[in-house]
Write a structure and sequence with these properties.
By secondary structure, the chain is of the alpha/beta class. It has 5 helices and 10 strands, in the order αβαβαββββββααββ. A hairpin with a 4-residue loop joins β9 and β10.
Length: 219
C-alpha cells in the first residue's frame, strides 16, 4: 500500500483482532486462536500481521514444536508444555526445535497467558486442540498451490524435505481435517485479506469482520 510501512499491520486487521479479543476465553484466561492451512499458504505472514494488529499478541509457531521425527506427533508435548500452563493462567515454557541441529533446546521459550495467543502452523486446528481454541482460522489456499509456493520459497536445498512432507501432510488432513471446523476462512487479496464465514460458522463476536464492501479488506 502506498505510504504504508511494509511491516505495518494492514488497515482492516485491527477489526479482526478486536473481534477475537471479544470472544470468550477458551484456555484459562486466554483466547487461543488457531491459524491453520497447508504448508506454503501464508500462515506465518498472516499470523505475524494479525499479532501486530492485536498489539503484539504472542505467537506460538508449530514449527518450533514439531520435529523431523514428529511432524505431527507433538500433541501431548503441546498439551504438557503449553496448554496446561495457559489453562492455569501461568506462563508456558516450551522447548524449541532446531531444524538444522535436529534437536530440541531447553524448555525455556516463554509464552505468556495474554488475552489473545495465536497458534500458527499446519495442524493448529486439529481435533485434539479444538476444545482449547476460541476460533479456527483457515488460510484458504488450495493444497497444490500452497505446496508450489512453499517449494519456491524454500528452494532446491529443501526439496528432499518437501518430498517427505507432502504425503505426511496429506495423511494428516485426511485423518484429521481442520478446514471443515474453521470458523473463518482467510483469503489473500492483491491488497490485504478477505475473511469470510467458515464451514463451522462465525463466532458471534467476529460477525462484523465478514461484512464489508471493500473487496481488498478483511470482510
Amino acid at each position: 500500500m502506498t505510504g504504508q510501512h511494509p511491516h505495518a499491520p494492514l488497515p482492516a486487521l485491527p477489526r479482526l483482532a478486536d473481534a477475537l479479543r471479544r470472544l470468550p476465553p477458551s484456555c484459562g484466561p486466554v483466547r487461543l486462536i488457531a491459524v491453520d492451512g497447508h504448508a506454503g499458504s501464508g500462515k506465518s505472514t498472516f499470523a505475524r500481521r494479525l499479532a501486530e494488529a492485536a498489539g503484539g499478541a504472542p505467537v506460538l509457531r508449530l514449527d518450533d514444536i514439531a520435529s523431523h521425527t514428529e511432524l505431527f506427533g507433538w500433541t501431548e508435548r503441546l498439551r504438557r508444555e503449553v496448554i496446561g500452563p495457559l489453562a492455569r493462567g501461568a506462563t508456558a515454557h516450551y522447548a524449541t526445535y532446531d531444524w538444522h541441529e535436529r534437536r530440541f533446546g531447553p524448555a525455556g521459550t516463554p509464552l505468556p497467558p495474554a488475552p489473545v495467543v495465536l497458534v500458527e502452523g499446519v495442524g493448529a486446528g486439529r481435533r485434539a486442540l479444538r476444545p482449547h481454541l476460541a476460533a479456527v482460522l483457515w488460510m484458504d489456499v488450495p493444497r497444490e498451490e500452497a505446496w508450489q509456493r512453499g517449494r519456491r520459497r524454500d528452494g532446491a536445498v529443501q526439496s528432499d524435505f518437501w518430498d517427505g512432507w507432502e504425503p505426511a501432510e496429506l495423511q494428516h488432513f485426511t485423518e484429521d481435517p481442520s478446514r471443515p471446523y474453521a470458523d473463518l476462512l482467510v483469503r489473500q487479496c492483491p491488497e490485504g485479506y478477505q475473511v469470510i464465514t467458515g464451514p463451522n460458522g462465525v463466532p458471534s463476536a467476529t460477525q462484523d469482520v465478514t461484512q464489508s464492501d471493500d473487496p481488498s479488506a478483511v470482510r
